[in-house]
Amino acid sequence: DIQMTQSPSSLSASVGDRVTITCRASETIDNFLNWYQQKPGQAPEVLIVGASSLQTGVPSRFSGSGSGTDFTLTISNLQPEDFATYSCQQSYKSPYTFGQGTKLEIK
Amino acid sequence: QVQLQESGPGLVKPSETLSLTCTVSGDSISSYYWSWMRQSPGKGLEWLGNMYFSGTTSGTTNYNPSLKSRITTSADMSKNQVSLNLRSMTAADTAVYYCARVYSTSITWFGPWGRGIRVTVSS
Fold it and tell me: Could you report the per-residue pLDDT of B105-116, keeping only the tens digit for each?
């Protein structure tokens, strides 16, 4: 199975900050990488597919980049509603696997 | 707007079979693939399998090999529901279980998701 490793596991930041979350695959996955946001008690929602394509309705302060094994999710100008857990997921090869999640908390 | 709702028991005894149902509204289950995922306490999301059902309830499936011997899925087209059965439950299967639509173009991703159902395995 392809292992997905996210860093950091948790992150404290303030409203207005810019943060970057990293996701590393144990083997190359081209750009078959998706990012999800999950708020407590809510269903995960997809933010970015194919490493960098923002889903409809997702604010432009979210961006994704990377290819191969290393990927990043960047959130600029953090807003109160952005404090959540973010997970990456590879769809290059079955079984599809997720990172362990990064919890973004308010400082 | 597609909405998904998981239902089933919140408590299962060890060695028993978990049966969960995902009721889909806003679209026909025969239009897409559907997926089950779970999240154990303190861990990341785990993909359990994808399934597609058209005119038959057995359908096309792709399961996580880690569960392949224990998992089965089915559909009730008249109720627009997909179901998950997971046999021989243990404490390690305690998790929040989610169903989601599989969206597949050149990239496969999951959305929307249901809100999840918490399942505890305990005697």
Answer: 888 999 999 999
